[in-house]
Amino acid sequence: MKRKILLLVCDGLGDRPSPELGGRTPLQAAAKPNIDALARKAMHGLIYTLSPGVVPGSDTSHLSLLGYEPQGFYTGRGPFEALGAGMKLNRGDIAFRCNFATVDAHGIVIDRRAGRIREPETAELASLVSDMRIDGAHVRFRESTEHRCVLVIGGKGLGAEVSDTDPGATGMSLQLSKGKDAASAKTARILNKFTEIAHASFTESTVNRERAARGLPPANAVAARSGGIYPSIEPFCEKHGLTFGAVAAEGLIKGLCAALGGEVVTPPGATAGMDTDLRAKGRAALAMLSEKDFVLVHVKATDIAGHDGNARGKVDILQKVDAMVGEIMNGAGDSTVFAITGDHSTPVSAKEHTCDPVPVMIYAAGLRSDGISSFDEISSSAGSLTWLRGIELMPLLKGYAGRNEKYGA
Ligand code: ZN
Ligand code: ZN
Q1: Taking 90 as the threshold, does the pLDDT of residue 293 lie above it?
Q2: How many angstroms is it from 60 CA to the middle of ligand 2?
Q3: How many angstroms is it from 362 CA to the middle of ligand 1?
Q4: Could you give the CA distance from residue 46 to residue 272 in angstroms, rounded to a whole number?
Q5: CA 235–ligand 1 middle distance (angstroms)
Q6: Across 217-302, where does the E strand assignment appear?
Q7: Looking at the predicted structure, is the pLDDT value of residue 283 above 90?
Q8: Is 152 exposed, middle or buried (0-12, 13-18, 19+ CB in 10 A)?
Q9: Could you say which DSSP state residue 105 is in?
C-alpha cells in the first residue's frame, strides 16, 4: 500500500536538561498526551541532521531532512530568504538577506532594525530602490517581514563569495563588501554602490521625514548579509517521485520549500513567532494532505524560545504543538506515515544551535513499535531507529510509505 507522508519539524526542538524544569528537557517537562499516545505506537531514534558534531543551520538541516546533501550547492541563505519574500529568482542570481538600519552622520550603525520599522513604511522605502541597473547588472530590492528586506543581483560574471555590509553589531560602521575572487569582487562593487544609492534615497524620503517628526530613528541604510547564489536544485517531485507541499510561516523555510518546487501555505493566524496559531497550521496540513503525497509542517517558535533561553516558553509551545498533533491525527487516518523531529537542537541553556542530535519518531498503522512511552531526547536514545543522519530520513520515510522500489530480484 502506498501511503502519504507527513513530516512535522519543530525548529530547534532538541534541548538539554534545564535547571528551571527540575533537570528535565522542555520535551520531558511538557504535558503532551497526543504526542505521547503516538510515541507508544511509534519507532524512535536520534538524528544528526547534518553529521555528528556539526552545528546545523536551519536551511542546511532542512535540506538534509528533505533528502538533499547541502554540500556542493549551498552558498548562503540569501536566495531562500528572497524566495520567501515572494521574489522570483533566476539560476545564478546572487541574493542577500538585509535589514533596514539606522546610521548616524558618520556612517556608524546605531540601530540594526531602524526602530523596528514595519510595513507600510518598509514597502514605501523599498519602492524607491526596487529595480535598477548597476554596472550592467539587474538589481532588485524588496521589503520582507518586519524590519527585514532582500536584495537580488542578477547578471553575467557574478560570484557569491562576498563579505557582509552588516557589521552585526551597533557602534560599528556599515562595512564595505569585499569579494574573494574577480567575479565576487564585481558583486561586492555592485552591492556597495547599491548601499550608497539606498542611503541617499532613504535619507531624502518622505517616510524618514515623517519618522523624524514623530521622534523615530530614520531607516536610512540597508545592511546586507548571508549572500548566496541561487543554485540549480533538482525539484523534490522529480527527486523523490512525490508531490510536495509545506505549511510554514518563516520566510527562510517558505523560500527553501519554494526552491524545491513545493507549494507553500501560510494559513491566517500562523506566524513565525511565539503567537502562532498552530491549530490553524494543523488544519492547513490536513487539507494539503488530501492533495499532496508529502507534506512538511514547520513550527518556528520552539527555536525562538530556545534562543531566548525561555524554558517555560518552550514547554508552552510544545503543548500547543501537542494540540496540533491531536488535530492532525484525528483527521489523517491510517494511510499516512507520520514523523516528528527537529532540524537541530537550540537548548535554552545555550541560547544557540548546538550539535546535540534531535529526537525522531515515526508512526504508521501496522508498523513496529518500540514500547517507548514518551517522545523526548532521552527516551528516543533507546529506540530501534538508533541514530540516523538527516539525509537518511527521506529514504526511510519513503520505504515505510511503500514508495521505494525493491533493490534486487
Ligand atoms: Zn532551525
Ligand atoms: Zn535558530
Answers
A1: yes
A2: 12
A3: 20
A4: 25
A5: 22
A6: 221-229, 244-247, 263-265, 294-299
A7: yes
A8: buried
A9: T
Tell me if 25 sits within 8 A of 377, measured CB to CB.
Answer: yes
Q: What is the average per-residue pLDDT within 50-78? A: 94
Q: For residue 319, what are the CA distances in angstroms to 26, 92, 207, 328, 387?
A: 10, 42, 42, 14, 26
Q: What is the mean pLDDT of the chain?
A: 96
Please give the grid coordinates belonging to residue 246: 509545506
Q: Is 142 helix (H, G, I), strand (E, B) or coil?
A: strand
- Read off the pTM: 0.92
In this predicted structure, what is the pLDDT of residue 72? 80
Q: How far apart are CA 229 and CA 263, in angstroms?
A: 22
Distance CA 139, CA 208 (A): 23
Mean pLDDT of 298-318: 97
- How close is the Cα of 296 to the center of ligand 1, in Å? 14
Residue 221 phi/psi, 5-degree rounding, is: -150, 155
- What is the domain class of 4-73+234-400 according to CATH? alpha beta
pLDDT of residue 75: 86
Take residue 235 and report the three cell numbers written for it: 525539484
| Span 203-233, pLDDT tens digits | 999 999 999 999 999 999 999 999 999 988 9
Structural element, H or E, at residue 26:
helix 26-29
d(CA 291, CA 275): 28
**Which ligand has its closest atom nearest to the C-alpha of 14?**
1
**Res 290 pLDDT > 90:** yes
Centroid of ligand 1 to alpha carbon of 48 (angstroms)? 13
Over 90: is that where the pLDDT of 73 sits? no
SS3 of residue 99 by DSSP: strand
Percentage above 90 pLDDT, the chain: 95
Q: What are the residue boundaries of the structural domains of the chain, listed by start?
A: 4-73+234-400, 80-229
Single-letter residue type at 195: T
Burial of 82 by CB count in 10 Å (0-12 exposed, 13-18 middle, 19+ buried)?
buried
Ramachandran sector of residue 199 (left: φ over 0; alpha: ψ -120 to 50; beta: rest): alpha
Contact 272, 241 (CB under 8 A): no
Rounded to the nearest angstrom, the distance between the alpha carbon of 2 and the centre of ligand 1 is 30
